[in-house]
Design a protein that fits this description.
Bound molecules: adenosine-5'-triphosphate, magnesium ion
Strand content of chain B: under 5%
Radius of gyration of chain A: 23 Å
Shape of chain A: elongated
Distance between the termini of chain B: 21 Å
Order of helices and strands of chain A: EEEHEEHEHHHEHEHEEHEHEEHEH
Order of helices and strands of chain B: HHEHEHEHEHHHHHHHHHHHH
Helix content of chain B: over 70%
Largest sheet of chain B: 4 strands, mixed
Largest interface: A-B, 31 and 23 residues
CATH class of the largest domain in chain A: Alpha Beta
CATH architecture of the largest domain in chain A: 3-Layer(aba) Sandwich
Strand order of the largest sheet of chain B: 2-1-3-4
Oligomer: heterodimer
Strand order of the largest sheet of chain A: 6-7-8-3-9-10
Number of helices of chain A: 11
Number of strands of chain A: 14
Number of helices of chain B: 17
Radius of gyration of chain B: 28 Å
Amino acid sequence: MVTMTQHDTESPATGSDVLVVQDLVRNFGELRAVDGVSFRIAPGETYGVLGPNGAGKTTSISMIAGLLRPDSGSVHVAGQLMGPRQVGPKALLGLVPQELAIYPELSAAENLRFFGRLQGLGGAELRSRTDEVLDIIGLSDRAKSATKEFSGGMKRRLNIGIGLLHRPALLILDEPTVGVDPQSRNSILESVEALATEGMSVLYTTHYMEEAERLCDRIAIVDSGRIQAEGTRTELIRIVGELDEIRLDGSGDIAAAAGALERLPAVEHVLTEARTLRLTVREAPTAVAGIVNAAGQAGMELADVEISRPDLESVFLHLTGKALRD
Amino acid sequence: MRNLLAISATELRRFIRDRSNIFFVFFMPLLLVVVLGLQFGGGGSESRVAVSGAGGRLRQALAAELDELSVAVGATGDEAMRDQVARGRAAAGVYIPNDAAAAFAAGDPTQVELIVGTQGGSQLITQQVTTALQAVSLESAQRAALTGQGIPPDEAERALAAAEQDVGPVHVTIESVSELDEEFSGLGQFDLGAASQLLLFVFLISLAGSVTLIQSRQYGVQRRIVAAPVSPRQALAGQALGRWVIAVFQGSYIMAATALIFDVDWGNLWLSLLVLMVFGAVAAGGAMLIGSLMDSDNAASGVGVGVGLVLAALGGCMLPLELFPDTLRTIANVTPHAWAYEAYAEIQRHGGGLTDILPQLAAMAAVLLALGAWALRRSVARAM
Ligand SMILES: Nc1ncnc2c1ncn2[C@@H]1O[C@H](COP(=O)(O)OP(=O)(O)OP(=O)(O)O)[C@@H](O)[C@H]1O
Ligand SMILES: [Mg+2]
């Protein structure tokens, strides 16, 4: 009798995918930070991981990049099993950590050259790639300044540049726009778009819905260490179905209004944010009159009412009952 | 290998970028070599006498005689003289009261005051000053005898000078026979200070440099290095190599600078360098350990300096090991400094060869292995 045993180091049907993540689990003491995460990224695809603070994004990425050993589950990069001691698959990844990871005493060019060398670049190739990357991240004119003199946005851009240097098969960006001014943020998003157009595969985590919508071919919505839903933007929004969002701003007895609205048959969800109520509602255009009425009767004085079509934020709200940002 | 070199070169570059390192690496050691040289060195306080009080013939004559005995003479005020002796800057002081100067001029019995320090060699200096004073009074007696016979003073002076030419002076050389003096006898003024400052600074700067390891974690670059196709061991080896290069560079600089500026004799250069390289490796191991044990860079530089100073003091880099009481001397052997100090003593003072310093090298290698294994295990865990 012949039995098939699947060997651990062999790729379990990775096909041509650059990244295959299977059932990743990681605990920190009692806390299960990552709880069975699985997904795949095809070549040239930009894959987004959208989730709030503490969802387990960085922990997942640490395991994907071989910085952290999973308690269970596996990561394959282009068919090779990833782990802390696996040098082969690491060479295929470009990691841009959430926290800045640059030497403040060294210049932008020195930082790039150092990490380039670690990626096996050298000589003329390293020099020309350094210049190219400095150009991409718009720091050519500051190449020789110590990075401790850089603005926050400039440091962020260098942080990204280091990940690009060796033209990785998969670029991993962990919340690259956090704490960045709008201008730098836009230039970062444009660079990522340009790279994606050139055919680089990208794994992009964020808690900004707009970024995920703008950049990503497919998006995983994560919360509490789990993928709650996955798909293209359209597929995800279909989950909410015909639900729209109505926002009520005002004063008075907001809590009472929330309670009253929850009992209305058209209202799916009510979320209270200070002086705003966010409702997920079926057929908003017809329901809105009854909602305004009910809120007024409960003692809320309305200042503003807004109806919007669902977006990823509404999907998140629908799936988790929480807002994406707190 | 390439990764290793890239990492260690970057460690070195970061070290050099830090301005404050320049001061500690280049100036401090030389400064302390000078200070120690003046304190313990052969040409230091032991043969310096401070003279105060009334000027005049007595003072001139005494200075001239002491000079003959190769004792350096400094003239100061009374207070300053006592202070210098108390602080060991002068081995002894002579105070000439006004009436003594007058009595000497008049040829009457004269009393001066001799103040002797408590340091080693005070017997020697007492002897030297006494000898000089005897010579002075002998000459004065001779002059008195001649003028007493009715010979005019200037003629008497000429006669005395002529007699000295003819007879030739009887020189008294005073030999020191204590064990300590024996031990330090082959040593130039700055040689001892140079070797001990080398050990002190190589170790201190290495330990204090452990902050760059902690910063690598804080800056997140450690994560980035491990995320690159570099094994954790390679990453650590690169950092250790960087620390070692800094230690050897620091030591070589002290050797070169003290040889050129203070004419320090390092004995067999290759052996001295070998001792430095082994000692530097121990220092690098210590740095890796502190770097992996501690999380705050400020605390690490404090601990680095503290541990560096204590080990140096215990290892004979502040007070020579030979002056240690026996128990302390035994305890000193826990420091790599003491072993390296001994190795340098063999090479510098006794012309020792490789076989003579093998025990010391072996002891340091043992410290290194123990330290290295511990540091490595800790650091691999911390690198991730
Ligand atoms: N080293 C650690 N030790 C203990 N708990 C940790 C550790 N790292 C992460 N956690 C916990 O695991 C959970 C997931 O953290 P993680 O950093 O992965 O979240 P995240 O999605 O990246 O959040 P953010 O958007 O804030 O970056 C959090 O509750 C966090 O407190
Ligand atoms: Mg994170």
